[in-house]
Amino acid sequence: MSRIIAGLAGGLPLNSVPGTGTRPTTDRVKEALFSRLEAYGVLEGSEVLDLFAGSGALGLEAGSRGAASVTLVDLDAKAVAACQKNGALLNEASPRLRISVQRSKVTAYLERAVGAWDLVFLDPPYPLGEDDLAHVLTLLSGHLAEGAVVVVERSSRSPEPAWPDALERFAEKKYGETVLWFAEPA
């Protein structure tokens, strides 16, 4: 079972998405990821977007660690239900945190989105093709605040994403079968 690791809701167990369509980020990867994000100074007061959210674990971890708002986006009804339950649990620990859950295709959401995010997580299903991921990154690049950080989580067997001109990769870290790519506005 996934959980919030640290912050206001540290230790809070999260509801999982039933079935085999999602693969939760391991605690080891989450701890390393959020340690890095804290070092970058992008968590406190940030506007966070979690695309292909699954249970919402990454976005909600950011919320527990000081984000001002978290938007969770997934198309799967079971994932959206898990996000809603988990968002309600986190709001009990942190009532000032604004949490929004959107049931939508990621591309459709980004095409109609307004505003800019400081921190974005993309943990797409492994079957998502590289061209589709590149399209999502292109759409996303117009919705980033200055100094924003984009984190893409993929299988270590996947190639590096094709970054649009508006995004520049600045770091990469491999954890067993998982690789994280970090990018920022160019």
Could you characterize the architecture of this molecule?
This protein is an alpha/beta fold and about 190 residues long. It contains 5 helices and 7 strands, in the order αβαβαβαβαβββ. Strand 4, helix 5 (about 130-140) and strand 5 (about 145-155) form a beta-alpha-beta unit. Helix 2 packs parallel to helix 3 (about 75-95) and helix 4 packs parallel to helix 5. The longest helix is centred in the middle third of the chain and has 17 residues, at about 75-95. It is globular.
SSE map:
Blueprint: H1 27-40, E1 47-51, H2 57-64, E2 69-74, H3 77-93, E3 98-103, H4 106-112, E4 117-122, H5 130-140, E5 144-155, E6 167-175, E7 178-185
Parallel strand pairs: 1-2, 1-4, 2-3, 4-5
Antiparallel strand pairs: 5-7, 6-7
The count of DSSP E runs of length 2 or more, i.e. the number of strands, is 7
The best one-word shape is globular
Specify Rg, calculated over alpha carbons. Answer: 15 Å
Report strand order across the widest sheet: 3-2-1-4-5-7-6
Question: Tally the helices: what do you get?
Answer: 5
Amount of beta strand: 25-35%
What share of the residues lie within helices?
Answer: 25-40%
Taking the alpha carbons of the first and last residues, their distance comes to 37 Å
| Class inferred from helices and paired strands | alpha/beta
Mean pLDDT: 93
The main β sheet shows up as: 7 strands, mixed
Order of helices and strands: HEHEHEHEHEEE
Low-confidence stretches: none
What key attributes describe this structure?
186 residues, globular, seven-stranded mixed β-sheet, alpha/beta
